[in-house]
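Archive entry. Fields below.
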Amino acid sequence: MLTIDFLINTISLGSLYAMLALGLVIVYGILKLVNFAYGELLMIAGYALYVLGGLTISIPWFVIAIFAVLIAAVVSYLTEMIAFRPVREKSLTAMLITSFAVSTLLQNAALLIISPRARAVPLPDFFSQSIAIAGTDIPIRNILSIITAVALFGALSLLLKYTVLGIALRAAADDFKMTRLLGVPANLVISAAFIISGFFAGVVAIFWTARTASVTPTIGAAPLLVAFVACVIGGMTNLLGAVVGGYLYGIVYSLLSLWLPQYLLDYREAFMFLIVILILLFRPTGLIRGNTTSERVG
Amino acid sequence: MNLKRQFSKWFQNNSTLVLLLVPLLLLALLTQLLGGTLLHRIVTVLFINLLLVLGLQTFMGNSGILSFSHIGYMGIGAYASALFSMTQEAKAATLPDLYPFLQNVHLPFLVSVLIGACIAMLVAAVLGYPLMRLSDAAAVITMFAVLVIIQVVLVHWSAVTNGPRTLYGVDNYTTLWVSVTFGLLAVIVAYYFKESNFGLMLRASRDDRYAASTIGINVITVRWLGFMLSAFLAGFAGGLWAHFITSFSPYAFYLGETFAILAMLVVGGTGGISGAVIGTVAVTFVHEGLRQIENGINLQGGGLVGFTEVFMATSLIALLIWRPGGIMGGREVSWPRRTPQSHEDQALSGSGKS
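PREDICTED_STRUCTURE:
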């Protein structure tokens, strides 16, 4: 059962999920905002790929991909500046509803401006090729997603450890009030978190849209749900937890696909969310414990 | 004389109820007088929405917990009531794999809706009890998880729901006055729940859950009761809606509808009944009006899909920026009286961040 291609595919899936979860948690850690508009950032990056790929002048794919990721980061920053910043001080509920509204807005804007139908995104040739490892064919895309994830995690942890911005981000996630009292500008830290979040969404979008080679207005829903579950499994309060949660999600999901009988296979998503509820009940800080939280009564 | 004094005392304390019910009744009468299929439809939908929004308000407004699972209970109520009220022939046509013990059941309309609402309430009671311990972000995510689970089950339980396909053959029983009657009843129920001991305890737990526990309020129990009532109202609204629209699929009970209902409550202000009523009336008219325009243009070949939602979402964001407490800011409309009334905290700016 546990063949090498199953293993690599699972890890590759886990890498995508880990990147998704990380992008969500980096904002949650500071603002305590569960960003419902996160999935739409993937959609934006997907449409950026479609629009740039459809231009008459031909641009190399790498340039298009980099632009798509940057556009997702910029849009993430814009949502923060326009929608979240004014309600930030008011209340958690107002912020949550705002993020829900931003999500609806972006999704329907895509419906309105582009089309409800799927649009093709450009893919380089090596995305559909595979190489032989230990006798089985492994898609290059899967190996690439693992390498990308590891590289990005390395880069992010260097950023967090050795730069002033990184230290400010970590401090803000620990205790935002205290960090502000020490003179760290709140807007800067939060904007940085949103930009990093959008960056990760953009990177995942490249791999996510490659699976069907197309993008639709509702493409963001599935990755958003994945990111939610992965965050809760790992613990919403720290970044390592998010990464672990993402990989665990990939493993559990693959195993469920393997082991569940046919008639229950359709209910996989429901099982994943049941796990979320159970974890929140019995271990509300996630599997990796961060700081103490005061989220429960009774 | 005594009776008159009693009434004037009651009116002084409960002028909110009268001030909400009378205009709603006038709206219904006006619709009846003016006629017109479109206006009839919009106002019928409006009163069903009123049930839904008030259901959401009883839990969310009083407990301060954002409930994303609400539309799921509407879906349960819709499917459950349809299963009991459909004729045998209709069931055989649309649900060939239905369990034998359900095949021959054919109950009157209102009984079916009541059963549907009770099933929704039961599901909420079982799923909800362990969740009532959670607050803030954990509560939001689990509520969202419940919505996803209900959605997945509705889409895949083909024997009962016809799967992702449309369920058709439900009879049309929900007329304008059925919907008006239950919409007005919901106003009364939600109002008295808010003013009751339980409602007061729930609101206390919203404002400060630790202080509420220290004076002997069992936060989990009062939240649970509010949650069940909220699910019952949603289930009831689902039943009425099913017998109004007569054919529907599980996708009607997901994020789109959730957004619409949340928008209605938030526009008016979550903290009060008045906010819920005003928000529902305003948003329903704007929403349905825009949708008519959108559909009209699409029928003529123009591509305007999503215009309504873009407009609604933009206005909601703008409203949250300038007036995060909604139009009413958690206050109730009331007849002016001599002693100044204490204003409640704005629900939106009071909850969370504690």
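CURATOR_NOTE: The beta strands of chain A are 119-120, 130-133, 136-139, 214-215.
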